[in-house]
Amino acid sequence: MGMSKNMNGYIKICNNKYLNYTCLILIVTSVLIIIYSLNTTNGAEYSRTLSSLILLQFLSFFAGSFLGFLFGFPSHNNNQFLEKYQRNSSLKEITSWLTKIIVGITLIEFKDIFHYLKYIIYHLSNSLSNDDSHTVIIAAIIGTYFILGFIVFFILSVTTIFEELVVNDKNIEAILTSEAMNPNEVYIDNADSVNSHLNSDFSKMKPQEKQEILKYVAKNGVDKMEPLMTKRLAKFLYAMEEYELAAKAYENAYIKDNNEKISLLNACYIKSKLLKDFDNSNKKLRDLINVDPSFAPAYYNLACNYNREYLEFKDAIKTDYIKTLKSKAEDNLTKAFKLDKGLYSEAKKDEALAGIDIEVIFAKSKDQNNS
């Protein structure tokens, strides 16, 4: 049991596959270096050869790691933080300068680099012994571990380190925007002030007023207003590209007033078109059709959803479900035309129905009506 717990603890620590692969390569090559070092005449020479090769191994790895860190170090933008406080960008600037310098020197001295590298390898080989095989092993160690170090730390820089910086940025932003850091900032706690903004022209709103709306939503949600104001809130959130909140607001407007069917259609459009939540959007539309089977726009939007999903995945996924999406779109569009022929002109210019023969579907709907 104790051994099992220790192993579980070890596995949790070493959960990065790149580090695991690196450790595996390090162990294998270290064993090979030990075996190679046994080809010596006495213990003193063995110790000197083995320690020298292992030090060269780590030096090459750390040299490559340093370059990988420089090339992969995430950049950040101070403009997102409040002007009063700025992140120290020295490391970002240093890595940028060093990267440009290294690339520039490499391009200019490309031929000479191999000459210097060859000189270093022969010099190290002669310092160990006159055995020519040392040249091969030293070149292999330098090349393998330099490249390995570069790749591993480049990947870690653009994944793990980047993830840590993103989390840190969110924490910093939360601190800087908190009431303790901004005691003079006005916080909107009531709907009256927000209502006045929602009744204004969005294109003429100041950035501060838009932020007040977002702060109100963050604190109170999108379900505290009357249906009309909830619908206007959804429109403003959509204009601010807060699509998930906009969809929730439109859906809440319908929940509060079942006559607001267009609001539900807007929510379904946002979920399908912008959030790619096809299943949820389709379910809402099918539920609406069950409540009101004569509501033509619901069939039309469901047809758009099915065809939009078909266009999204037809080249990437080949399944029976994907193949039936287009026929479902055509069936629902036919039902929409049967209930409201005025949707024909809208369908002709709707990109969501690309690939569907609108003329044929419209003619089919007329034939079904006549029959």
From TrEMBL:
Signal peptide bounds: none
InterPro entries in the record: TPR-like_helical_dom_sf (IPR011990)
Superkingdom field: Bacteria
Keyword Nucleotide-binding: no
UniProt cross-references to SUPFAM superfamilies, sorted A to Z: TPR-like
Keywords: Membrane, Transmembrane, Transmembrane helix
TM helices/strands, residue ranges: 21-38, 50-73, 94-117, 137-162
Name by which UniProt lists this protein: Tetratricopeptide repeat-containing protein
